[in-house]
Amino acid sequence: MSIQFVEIPWRERTVRIEHEFLSPAQRVEAGAPLIVFLHEGLGSRSMWRDFPQRLCDAVGAPGLVYSRPGYGRSTPRAADEHWGLDFMHRQADEVLPALLDALDVPRPVWLFGHSDGGSIALLHAAHQPQRVAGAVVLAPHIRVEAFGLASIRAARVAYETTELRSRLSRHHDDVDSAFWGWNDIWLHPDFPTWNIEAELPAIACPLLAVQGLDDPYGTLEQIRGIARARPSTTRAPTELLELPACGHDPQRDQPDALIAAVQAFMARHR
Fold it and tell me: Residue 240 class from Cβ within 10 Å (0-12 exposed, 13-18 middle, 19+ buried)?
């Protein structure tokens, strides 16, 4: 299906959300839930490239890919809009539910989130457990590490001095909206206090957490912290996948290994 737009109410205005539904190459397996893809802090629908389609084909499930407000072809941030420390909570608790309602998406769904999108997936699964059948999170953030903040500072320098802005502009109608919305809040002096570990025990679905060993934005403690905060149970297992030769983007650095792992995980727990 081609790219579409839907309007949702958010932050006392109406925002337009760019989205695309994906169908697997083969017939959808019986009972296969929709997989909702949640992009990274500088991502968009288009920046996933062909990975969502490849995963949907492999697991025999439909997918939904969208750009959050401020990203891609979705409504940019307003000129005076500054995100708060709760910006990922607001995406999890307000934007995602409003989008799924506007699109009449049956619940429960599977969530597939990367980086900030992984944190949003964890928060949505914790706050609305009855609406989530399972979750896969890549390079999620559950706390702020000085290690990662150094890379975010380096990204700011790269945006101002290299071709990074030009490359990102291919994926965002308002590239400054996307970059500064993300970078400003992550480098806010109060943001090091951000932490969602206390919320993770409420997650009631199967959860696969993935981390690259060479990720410049987070250490293995991000996913190992998930396992400590939310111990595995028979009905709601927590599984970890630590990928060598992999940076912040497992879907680009190790796509085949990632797809195989997700396919096996969903087969066991769907």
Answer: middle
Query: Which residues share a beta bridge with 212?
Result: 243
Q: How far apart are CA 166 and CA 148, in angstroms?
A: 23
- Supply the pTM of this predicted model: 0.97
**How close are the terminal C-alpha atoms of the chain, in Å?**
25
- Give the Cα separation of 55 and 58 in Å (integer): 5
Q: In this predicted model, what pLDDT tens digit does every residue of 168-214 receive, in sequence order?
A: 999 999 999 999 999 999 999 999 999 999 999 999 999 999 999 99
**Cβ within 8 Å of residue 173, ≥6 positions away:** 72, 73, 76
* Residue type (1 letter), 175: V
Show the domain range for 244.
4-269
Cβ–Cβ < 8 Å for 219, 147: yes
Residue 49 to residue 39: CA distance in whole angstroms: 11
- Strands 63-66 vs 207-212: parallel, antiparallel or unpaired: unpaired
Our count of domains for the chain comes to 1
Tell me which residue of 86, 67, 85 sits closest to 15, measured CA to CA: 67
User: Of the candidates 51, 47, 46, 49, which has an alpha carbon nearest to the alpha carbon of residue 35?
Assistant: 51
Question: Can you give the CATH number for the domain in which 152 is found?
Answer: 3.40.50.1820
Among 156, 179, 184, CA closest to 72: 179
The closest alpha carbon to 64, from 27, 109, 29, belongs to 109
CA distances from 242 to 205, 212, 220, 222, 237 (A): 20, 6, 8, 11, 16
**Residue 245: CA count within 13 A, CB half-sphere:** 6
Which residues have C-beta within 8 Å of that of residue 146, sequence separation ≥ 6? Answer: 192
